[in-house]
Amino acid sequence: MRAAAGTVRANAAAQREVRRTNASAWLLPEDGQGFDHTLRRDMRRYADSDEVDLLIVGCGAGGSTLAQRMARRGWSVVVLEAGPFWDPLTDWVSDEAASHHLYWTEPRLISGSDPVPLGSNNSGRGVGGSMVHFAGYAPRFHPSDFRTHSLDGVGADWPVDYDDLRDSYRRVEYELPVAGQYWPWGDPHPYPHPPHPVGGNGEIFLRGAAALGIQARVGPVAITNGRFGRRPHCIYRGFCLQGCKVNAKASPLITHVPDALAHGAEIRADCMAAAVELGPDGLARGVRYFHNGREHLQLARTVAVAGYAIETPRLLLNSACPRFPDGLCNDHDLVGRYVMVQGAPQTSGRFEEEIRAHKAPPPEVSTEQYYETDPDKPYKRGFTIQNISPLPITWAEHVVAQGHWGADLRRYLSDYVHWATLGAMAELLPQPDNRITLAEQTDRYGLPVANFAFSQCDNDRMLIKAARGVMESILRAAGASEVITIDRYAHLVGGCRMADNPRAGVVDHRLRTFAVPNLLITDGSVLPTQGSANPALTIMALVDRAAGLLAAGERSGLRAPS
């Protein structure tokens, strides 16, 4: 009863609280569809020669949140985004094959003993970043995530702890907003919207979990359950990963960009950053970038890089100069190191009844029962499990991975509506040789491309195997007649980790680089560990906190607004 009351109170306060500090949901078109083009047409525009207060590279989870926060504080803000400025109504389609333009498909190299495929499950382009095509799953990290070395002897301790982010988590949950049952794991808390109705896939998960005594909850998803401002209720169309045409699923494009534009920020789409430039005083003075085939230099008093776990280290490495011959901020050979992904196996089970797994939010039910280190297990840290909803092309990849082809493959595909699928997120550990370096190959701008080397350790392999075993047990307990599993990865973090000192990391707890005090990194590359949670909410919470610290010192900091 207390849990339900907490959700009711949070829901009643959500719209009232959010509108005072972020009116994005009320700045969409009257019918809630698409994007208000007058915001783009009328946005403030700066010249390259204007020394703006803040220049941000990247308009995803971190960059958009920072732009909105600082524009509201009265800072002059310019955002450079390599991809286009999306319009949900015209650019996003209910078609798996026709949605690849949402992914970062510029050339990259992968290597290591367990190379990570790059694309739809971990890379985005355009205003809104990869949250445009994320599934909407928005959990918090646990308090233990910030002290894995102290508690479990693995990973690294953060220079901040959970208590430093609690208020930021709540603010961002209200802005997205997040829907779900009262959450009993980690730091127990309610969500501002009640949980969505459970579809067939979620019912299978709940049935199997109950049979095994596993706790499961509905949510948390950053998908509106009821109207929010001018955003409509989710209609359960099943294409969350292809961009939400109805604006029910959160992405920075609709949750933070409108308010940033209304407060004077400029977002320049189709602008590829080439290098951060330093002035004679050793401070950042701007960013060189390409637009329409020409190179530009935008001047700024403060620079923030938010290109995510591959493009941020790549940009710093490509910004080598006499002061930093091995790459900007790379005095201690830490730029590009400790890049992490999550082990994300997916397990499907065949049921006699029709499941129609796609007709609900993709991660509608989840459990964090296996999140923490279990002293009785041979591995450290843990994993979470959610139900997921692969559409037919992705489902075909699952089937082909089992060796099925031809008529056999067609038989499985025609049976698509009878399959339920679960997905795990296993916390793979940070390792220094899992890293981004520059390759000899160059892109269309003449810039060296990134090479991402990744290899699993023994702990990683044990975790993934354990997650597979639990998912297969849940589906069999729910009555599955056949079970198949495919191994894969999800999400990207690390590469410019936070630390207490410059010999352990690239940025401090304020997300300022140790080497260049007016250069910030405000994306998932700063995470020292990755937990077993989707990182989007934590990225936004970290940036919310950093923006508050930046604003508090705005008249006294290096190159701060005059």
TrEMBL record:
Domain Glucose-methanol-choline oxidoreductase N-terminal: where?
A: 124-321
* Pfam families for this protein: GMC_oxred_C, GMC_oxred_N
Statement: the UniProt record of this protein carries the keyword Flavoprotein: yes
- Mind telling me which SUPFAM superfamilies this protein's record contains? FAD-linked reductases, C-terminal domain (SSF54373), FAD/NAD(P)-binding domain (SSF51905)
Gene3D superfamilies per UniProt? FAD/NAD(P)-binding domain
Transmembrane helix in keyword set: no
Q: Which organism is it from?
A: Kitasatospora aureofaciens (Streptomyces aureofaciens)
Q: Quote the InterPro entries the UniProt record gives.
A: FAD/NAD-bd_sf, GMC_OxRdtase_N, GMC_OxRtase_C
Keywords per UniProt: FAD, Flavoprotein, Oxidoreductase
Q: Which domain of life is it from?
A: Bacteria
Q: Name one GO molecular function term.
A: oxidoreductase activity, acting on CH-OH group of donors
Q: What is this protein called?
A: Glucose-methanol-choline oxidoreductase
Q: Where is the Glucose-methanol-choline oxidoreductase C-terminal domain?
A: 430-542
So which residues are the signal peptide here?
A: none
- Similarity field: Belongs to the GMC oxidoreductase family.
